Task: structure prediction
Amino acid sequence: MLNIVSILIGLVTLVLGLVAFIPLLGWMNWLVIPIGIVGAAVGALSSSNGGRNLNIVLIIIFALRLSLGGGII
Result:
């Protein structure tokens, strides 16, 4: 059950993160990354690894996007 919740959080993170890829909306990554961290934490509590892995990949992608945009120095 927790894995499904983690995957749903990951999908919300993905949708919000895709919006953050639009130019001048990169600041949204500061909101998307913590949501992904919560999803990864929920996924870590489950017996499956799918939701946790999805959220970790999304965190890495959006942190990379944030660093390329100059948000993380």
